[in-house]
Amino acid sequence: MKIRSLTLPTRNLAAQRTFYGQVLGLPVEIGETNSLSVHIGTSRLIFEQGDGADGFSHIAFDIPRTLLAQAEDWLRARVPLLADPQGRTVFGPTDSWNTTNLYFDDPPGNILEFIARHDQPHDGSGPFGPRSLPHISELGVVVPDVPQAVVGLGQRFGLHAFNGQSETFTAVGGHDGMLIVVREGRGWFPVGRPAVPTPFELSFADGQGTRFLRHTDLEPR
Predict the structure, then answer these.
(1) Beta-carbon count within 10 A of 74 CB
(2) What is the edge-to-edge ordering of all strands in the sheet holding 35-40?
């Protein structure tokens, strides 16, 4: 799956505009109806003003594997990196995930991630900058029952478990784009913040064209 657009609610559109447009330097557009569109390579991250936007999401952006060190320096100059309980801020690669990961927050507390996938040909010659991000590659999806949600995603959208599965955590899709399906209350790596359901609208491309997924599609039937 290739994520084309992701729409999320936010309480503070102005803070998001400053963060994504000025701190990260990404191209942004203000919509006509209290919305903000952030261009991230071939993807768009859209925030809509919503007073009930109390949750947070996990969103990952791919970075070129050849620019990992540059990306880390670039990010550290702009935001604090999130650390695990041991104080580490750079994670991987591991035997099961051949990736290196950097995490940080946006103003409302969405957990953002730069991820270098060492098995994927996402290369660049530098210098690293906002236009080095090829696309959004992951969205965290919080559900009450992970196995049930994974079965539903397979039946309705042809999205299947990637790299194993468990009762509390399963990735579906592939390295070009995936959903990280977690059980409500499970701690998000690396800070352990309990996962909470958040409304979202997602469009993605696959072999059947453009597909659309909403949080309501994952509600138990």
Answers:
(1) 19
(2) 28-30, 35-40, 43-49, 2-10, 201-206, 209-214
